[in-house]
Automatic annotation (TrEMBL):
This is Major facilitator superfamily (MFS) profile domain-containing protein. GO terms for molecular function: heme binding; heme transmembrane transporter activity. InterPro entries: FLVCR1-2_SLC49-like, MFS, MFS_dom, MFS_trans_sf. The chain crosses the membrane at residues 116-136, 156-176, 188-207, 213-232, 253-273, 288-307, 430-448, 460-477, 483-502, 523-542, 548-568. One of its GO terms (cellular component) is membrane. It comes from Timema tahoe. It comes from the Eukaryota.
Amino acid sequence: MGPAQRVDTGQPRNVRTQDLENAVGLLTPVKQAPARSTRDIAWATNVSKSAVLQVLRDEGYHPYHYITTHHLLPGALLCHMSKQVDYTLVPVKALEEPAKCKLQEDTKVKVYPRRWLMLLMFSVCLLVNCVQWIQYSIIPQVITRYYNVSTTLVDFTSIIYLVIFVPAIFPASYILDRLASLLMGLRWATLLGAGLTALGAWMKVWSVSPDRFLITLLGQTVVGLGQVFQLTTSPRMAAVWFGPDQVATACSIGVFGNQFGVALGFLVVPLIIKNHDTLLDIGSDLSFMFYTLAGITSIVFIIVLICEFQPGHRDKNEATRTTACDALLYMRVAILSDYGQATKTYSQTNEPPLPPSLGQALQRATAREGHKNDFLGSIKRLLCNSNYTIHLMAYGINVGMYNTVCTLLGQLIEIRFQNTEDWEQFAGRIGLLIVLVGTAGSMVFGFILDKTHKYKETTLAVYILTVLGMVGFSFSLASESRLLVYITAVLLGFFMGGYMPVGFEVGSELTYPEPEGTATGMLFIPPSILGVVFTLLYSWLIGVIGDLWASLVFAGILGIGAILTACIRKDYRRLTANTGPKHRHQDLN
């Protein structure tokens, strides 16, 4: 077998290329001499590893050195050679494109109308969960009086959502990605999320007594655990059910349930719970709210349970025959594109019979050929992806700040407007406004991403405008002008709330073909940790330097996140997988 050949990209040759061409022989995938890593090439050519990667990228070699090519190719490259061969440095056009084109010839792609029903059911599940997140901290004065606890403990009823996320995200991602190969991932993730939400709501029914604040925290913990399963499902469901031009929009609609639930919490809770003269009357209001939520969440759980286990459907176009291609780069390979047996049934909320895009077809074919998800290996590859780790930090700062602002909004409003009688209702309206316009922002930016695929440009613009919105909101609170607070809350909410689905999609683009559940689950860890840190730090700074300067400090932290976003390279892997000669595959839509 000869060495991998250089691909002529039509670009001027780099001065470093000559040294590397002599080292390309190290990449020759033969039994006796398995391909070397980029570190070996760097050592052999006396250049840095980053320089090696850049030259390989310039010369047309596969840049995804942390992901083996059989994860990117249809079915797999079943080579009659050592499994130690590293195909990642074989020229991408010589290796990946012929296999990809062969897959396209045999692939049928289709989107199904019932995908909207799946999306609606998911959004409702997330809505009834997230409405409970802010239900205590938005009325801190009432809760501190009824349970005789400090404001910090009241804030902890929201913080606990973030605290539980970190230890729970790994088993949740494991369930979603590991069971996905058994056509069970989305089913059980949705069912567990709805069930835990209902259980936690009923636990809080039992907490209506001044001496049962601990039960309140336990109930919030269970509901927060349910949210873990539901939030990690959103990007995977969008990718599995929706076409490449609808994924970002679908993800935005999925996040809509999250944001609208928080909005309802801001609006409804202050209207139901009043600061009565007697604790008995306050307890009656709490009982009414908890029983109502418990009943609604139970109904949602029953609906999900019925939908999840109704009989599956058949699709006559589901099956395609196994194909093979001849020698590829002097290697005997077989590209298998079996999509399952023709009589196989599927769950309502798992993958449809036919993939909605070529990117999903690649992932399915890989799974069908026995390349099961390596959960720990996937996490390792994600952490070794420098682009993704930068995005992790930037996403953590933005979403962590969003959680902090929502948690402390009641206190921020109280500081400036406590002399007015309706300041609690005013805080609820501001929170509602922030979340609702954030929902609109997520829809707008999702649509923009689907139409333009300008991921970095959109993300950076949203981030910068979020910083400006935070600065404006800080000064408007200090001015004690309700009109200015309303205006700046709209700006802050539109961009800060609209960032979340944009961050989801950027993460999926940077990490393809890693499982969406794992990539998204990792995205939620930094916001959860930073949300707790930011909330405690923000509250402390308010007492030390005042609310205005504390808010400006956190606007500066958001600016750091914008700088990190500017450092992300344009490496759109999923977009690359979804593009190709469209006449080579059958679109059944």
